[in-house]
Write a structure and sequence with these properties.
The chain is α/β, with parallel strands linked by helices. The protein folds into two domains: 4-266, ANL, N-terminal domain (Rossmann fold); 353-456, ANL, C-terminal domain (GMP Synthetase, Chain A, domain 3, 2-Layer Sandwich), CATH 3.30.300. It has helices at residues 25-39, 53-65, 78-88, 136-150, 167-180, 192-198, 207-214, 217-221, 238-248, 315-320, 363-371, 404-414, 440-443, 446-451, and strands at residues 16-18, 21-23, 45-48, 69-72, 91-92, 116-122, 130-135, 157-160, 183-186, 202-205, 228-231, 253-258, 262-266, 280-281, 286-290, 297-303, 328-336, 343-348, 353-356, 359-362, 376-386, 390-399, 423-426, 453-455. The strands form six sheets. It has a nine-stranded mixed beta sheet with strand order 2-1-9-8-10-11-12-13-14. The chain is globular, with a radius of gyration of 22 Å. The two termini are 39 Å apart. Residues 446-453 have low confidence and may be disordered. The structure holds methylmalonyl-coenzyme A and adenosine monophosphate.
């Protein structure tokens, strides 16, 4: 994983820049060695993954020591934090970037290919987040495939400002830069102004970031000197694609992936790119559509070297994620163009999986958090279309003596701020079927809206 650190570009003083602080590879390696010494022998280690050089050193230190890294979302409330620490068995560690250890200039990574390198927590449709175990070999296979697809090299300067506790920001955005040897500028936050000022050749963003850039023509114009703009983590709306093309001269390349599979489909640098499509499989990935006879859309299923090693401690959930013949079930509905094999993601199979601002959020986890509030009798959570966030979380609740803002804050402090409902609607009851399962589609009909007292939380 450590190509860039192994001495080739050792003279770059500004190899890695995060939220305004800069380090050379030598400094990063020294700090990572100190982390590796601290965590040696632990089953796993956890660090609060702020956008900082410390998080980068933690990720590299874990690879050096062969100890899986569990990044903790910095805004995670006590319930989420405790769950992640308990479930992973990770030792909580802090990183002091100024504390460094010296050693041989070209380190041989201690993490063997099949060893777990990262454990990332991600939501399913129900229950608390599960730990997705990713091996060093899967990470390496994915990053090499992406480097080929995007012609991503040490000549590039990668710019992004994404969170460092998910695949997009951490794997692609940090380990990808280190593996290809490209300079990294992490902007702290993914604001249009920060992207414009960074002067990169390669830019990553979630659709919300691209849509905010498209709304700031001056900032967008500053990206015209870049080589490649890449969007992922959720569907890039066609109007945003067109605005970005008009303002920057670049047709953004879209790619598709999941925490469990890493990035599996992508458009190619220099290739034809159409809005609303996510390209073709990366080398080594095979895909198929599980469609009803006669239909050409259905669940996207795939296999390949980038797949996860399982959900930590949950063999049944892992088994359920695969078909009987061993293909991973993405839960996404897709279609493949018979002419050129280009894939299109049409939607999600489950209403209970929400994507908001590129974050994956399970409705069940938010419902359970709301039900922990003493004033809430019933709760049903859905994602409704939102021009900024793609989907926004709306909670329907049966509750008295509490305001929507109070419930929003309750979820924000219990779980993570990005999991908070943006809107709370009070209803007299939640419609249910004979099995007692909430009928969420009914909640979203006009009748449901009329019966509800909307209390839009200020966010
Ligand atoms: C507001 N805030 C609150 C409240 N209201 N905090 C607590 N309680 C409240 N009631 C605060 C927030 O904490 C935050 O503070 C600030 O207000 C803004 O919050 P928010 O509105 O949530 O942020 P945003 O600016 O709207 O975020 C948009 C975003 C973000 C920047 C695009 O959604 C984002 O970073 N998304 C990226 C997600 C991602 O990387 N997904 C990849 C997973 P403060 O400003 O202090 O923090 S997908 C993946 O890995 C796969 C493999 C893939 O395909 O990529
Ligand atoms: P996560 O595990 O957080 O990475 O979320 C994975 C999910 O994000 C996928 O199952 C898709 O629903 C969604 N996703 C990622 N990239 C795209 C894309 N380019 N277009 C549409 N959906 C996407």
């Amino acid at each position: 994983m450590l190509t860039a650190l192994a001495g080739t570009y050792g003279d770059r003083a500004d190899a890695v820049s995060v939220a305004g602080r800069t380090a050379s590879y030598e400094q990063l390696l020294g700090a990572a060695r100190a982390v590796a010494a601290d965590i040696a022998g632990a089953p796993a280690f956890a660090v609060t993954a702020t956008a900082s050089l410390e998080t980068v050193a933690a990720a590299v230190g874990g690879l050096l020591a062969g100890v899986p890294f569990v990044p903790l979302p910095p805004d995670a409330g006590p319930a989420e934090r405790t769950h992640i620490l308990r479930d992973s068995g990770a030792v909580e560690t802090t990183v002091d970037f100024a504390r460094r250890r010296s050693g041989a200039p070209a380190p041989a990574p201690a993490a063997a290919g099949d060893d777990p390198a990262l454990i990332l927590y991600t939501s399913g449709t129900t229950g608390p987040p599960k730990g997705v175990v990713l091996t060093a070999a899967a990470l390496a296979a994915d990053l090499d495939a992406l480097a080929a697809a995007w012609q991503w090299t040490a000549e590039d300067t990668l710019v992004h400002g994404l969170p460092l506790f998910h695949v997009h920001g951490l794997v692609l955005g940090v380990l990808g830069a280190l593996r290809t040897g490209s300079r990294l500028v992490h902007t702290g936050r993914p604001t249009p102004q920060a992207y414009a000022a960074a002067g990169g050749s390669l830019y990553f963003g979630v659709p919300t970031v691209w849509s905010r850039i498209a709304a700031e023509p001056t900032a967008a114009a500053a990206l015209s000197g870049a080589r490649l703009l890449v969007s992922g983590s959720a569907a890039l709306p066609a109007p945003v694609f067109r605005d970005i093309e008009r303002l920057t001269g670049h047709r953004p390349v879209e790619r598709y992936g999941m925490t469990e599979t890493l990035i599996t489909l992508s458009g190619r640098a220099g290739g034809e790119v159409r809005p609303g499509t996510v390209g073709t499989p990366l080398p080594g990935i095979r895909t198929r559509i599980a469609a009803e006879p006669g239909a050409d859309i259905g669940e996207l299923q795939l296999t390949g070297p980038t797949l996860f090693a399982g959900y930590l401690g949950r063999p049944e959930a892992t088994a359920a994620a695969y078909t009987e013949d061993g293909w991973f079930r993405t839960g996404d509905i897709a279609a493949i163009d018979p002419e050129d094999g280009v894939h299109r993601i049409v939607g999600r199979a489950s209403i209970d999986m929400i994507k908001s601002g590129g974050y994956r959020i399970g409705a069940g986890e938010i419902e359970n958090a709301l039900l922990d509030h003493p004033r809430v009798a019933e709760a049903a959570v859905v994602g409704v279309p939102d021009t900024d966030l793609g989907q926004r979380i709306v909670a329907f609740v049966v509750a008295e003596g509490v305001t929507g803002a109070e419930l929003t804050d309750f979820v924000a402090t219990h779980l993570s701020a990005h999991k908070r409902p943006r809107e709370v609607r009070f209803v007299p009851s939640i419609p249910r079927n004979a099995m007692g399962k909430p009928q969420k589609k009914l909640l979203l009909t006009a009748d449901g809206r009329d019966a509800a007292t909307a209390d839009r939380a200020s966010s």
